[in-house]
Amino acid sequence: MTGKRLTDIKKNIDREKIYDIKDALSVLKENAKAKFNETIDVSIKLTIDAKKTDQNVRGSIALPHGTGRTCRVAVVARGDKAAEATSAGAEIVGGEELIEQIVKGELNFDACVATPDMMPLMSKAARVLGPRGLMPNPKFGTVTNDIAAVVASLKKGRVNFKNEKASIIHAPVGKSSFTVEQLQDNIDALLAEVKNLKPAAVKATYIKSMHISSTQGPALKCAF
């Protein structure tokens, strides 16, 4: 983003204001002037203690209107489940040979799914997939025998999320080309799922703040 463009955008916003979600989305869309379709992201600050395992929050949700991006899915499976993955539209399907490719750093995909029987073999790929947030996980629904449904959900716009060490959840909720209503629907769905996952150990306020931003735009603080 150029200095002039950033200055122009700042003129149109109030950084101290707590925006209604729809108002914030309207401002971000009006100022999304990049030559590409900017991603709209949500950052949710939680009051959890991320150092305590019983307070960590992670989940997965298929957004009503998807994310606006193409998701390339890899499936680690054998036999009928491998055939099911291919029929469902997975771009990369394989068993032990695919695991070896992953270990070598060949990551031509955005999401990875595995059947339960393949998970013992997947341990060798954890050091490659884990840091990138791609390791199949039952809590995300990506360790499953229901391959067709999960692949379809991922390609539609399923989002996996988890809090960072700073107790913040980041998630894409669409593109600047989406309507305000579509983005609002996606944000509402994400918020509902995050609230549904409130740890039992958190007794008081759970969500501290929320910001919405675009790829090259400012972060606007929003009511939730």
Describe the structure.
With 224 residues, the chain is of the alpha/beta class. The chain has 2 domains: 15-66 and 158-222, Ribulose 1,5 Bisphosphate Carboxylase/Oxygenase, CATH 3.30.190; 73-156, Ribosomal protein L1/L10, domain II (Rossmann fold, 3-Layer(aba) Sandwich). The protein is 32% helix and 22% strand. The protein contains 8 helices and 9 strands. The protein has helices at residues 3-11, 21-30, 79-88, 96-103, 119-122, 126-129, 147-156, 180-196, and strands at residues 39-46, 58-62, 73-76, 92-94, 111-114, 158-162, 168-175, 207-214, 219-222. A 4-stranded antiparallel sheet has the order 7-1-8-9, with helices on one face. The longest helix has 17 residues, at 180-196. The protein is globular, with a radius of gyration of 19 Å.
Shape: globular
Number of domains: 2
Q: Roughly how much helix do the residues carry, as a percent range?
A: 25-40%
The termini sit apart by: 28 Å
Gyration radius (Cα, Å) is 19 Å
Kindly report the name of the CATH homologous superfamily of the largest domain: Ribosomal protein L1/L10, rRNA-binding domain
Write the layout of secondary structure elements.
Blueprint: H1 3-11, H2 21-30, E1 39-46, E2 58-62, E3 73-76, H3 79-88, E4 92-94, H4 96-103, E5 111-114, H5 119-122, H6 126-129, H7 147-156, E6 158-162, E7 168-175, H8 180-196, E8 207-214, E9 219-222
Parallel strand pairs: 3-4, 3-5
Antiparallel strand pairs: 1-7, 1-8, 2-6, 8-9
In short:
The protein is an alpha/beta fold and 224 residues long.
Give short descriptive properties of this protein.
224 residues, alpha/beta, Ribulose 1,5 Bisphosphate Carboxylase/Oxygenase, Rossmann fold, four-stranded antiparallel sheet, three-stranded parallel sheet, 8 helices
